[in-house]
Amino acid sequence: MSLHIAPVTVRGRLLLTVLVAVASALALMTLAFNVFVARSLNGSANRLLRERAEDHLAALANVGGQLREPGAPRNGVIESQVWVFTRGQLIERPRTGGEAQRIARTLAGGPRQTVDVPGHETRLLAVPIVSEGQRVGTLVAGISLRPYHETRRAALLGSLLLALVLLGTVGVAAYWLLARALEPVAQMTREAAAWSDRDLDRRFALGAPHDELTLLASTLDGLLDRLAASLRREKLFTAELSHELRTPLTRISTQAELALRRDRDPAEYRDAFVAILGSARQLTRIVETLVTAAREEAVSERGTADVYDVALNAADSCSTLSTSRNVHVRVLQPSVPIRIGVDADVAERILQPVVENACRYADGKVEIAVHRNASKVEVDVADDGAGVAQDEIDRIFEPGVRGSAAARAPQGAGLGLALARRLARAVSGEVAVDASAGGGRFTIRLPAA
Question: Is residue 446 within 8 Å of 296, Cβ to Cβ?
Answer without folding.
Answer: no
